[in-house]
Amino acid sequence: MNPPNRHAELYLNDQLVGIVEVRSSDNSWHFGVFTPHGDFAPFAPLFGRWSLLMHADEDADRLTSAASDELRETEIQIDRLRAKLHIPATGEWCDLQQINIDGELIDWKT
User: Fold this and answer.
1) Which of 10, 15, 47, 91 is the residue whose CA sits 20 to 30 A from 41?
2) What distance in Å separates the CA atoms of residue 35 and residue 78, rounded to the nearest whole number?
3) Which residues contact residue 106 at a Cβ distance below 8 angstroms, ignoring those fewer than 6 apart?
4) Phi and psi dihedrals of 14, rounded to 5?
5) Cα–Cα distance, 36 to 20 (Å, whole number)
6) CA distances for 96 relative to 35, 58, 61, 102, 107, angstroms
């Protein structure tokens, strides 16, 4: 997945949904900028909900029990997506174990 600034195509459930510019890595986690295509629209509410829940209780030490339950369910739904990256420059495919999209920021674990 290295070097930084490499471009990749994000697929969710075998559908091309956008472009990722890889910015950095830390062990098995990678970080970048996500530019969605129109086909990302069906997935946007799921990631939007995840983002809102992640930032919901920023002023508190912990999430409320209800927010924590909703976040857990949202993350289960995201984990059920078949997420993978295709690197056109090399033809490489990477299956993703986890993926988070927060606005234009994206991070994933391989």
Assistant:
1) 91
2) 18
3) 10, 20, 31, 32, 33, 34, 99, 100
4) 65, 20
5) 9
6) 18, 27, 30, 16, 10
In this prediction the pTM is 0.89
Q: What is the length of the chain?
A: 110
Sheet containing 15-26: order of strands: 92-95, 83-87, 7-12, 15-26, 29-36, 105-109, 98-102
Question: What would the pLDDT profile of 46-62 be if each residue is shown by its tens digit?
Answer: 999 999 988 876 666 67
pLDDT tens, 17-42? Answer: 999 999 999 999 999 999 999 999 99
Write out the two tokens for 105: 């920021």
Looking at the DSSP assignment, which residues form a beta bridge with residue 108? 30, 99
Q: Residue 24 burial by CB count (10 A; 0-12/13-18/19+): exposed, middle or buried? A: middle
Cβ atoms of residues 23 and 33 within 8 Å: yes
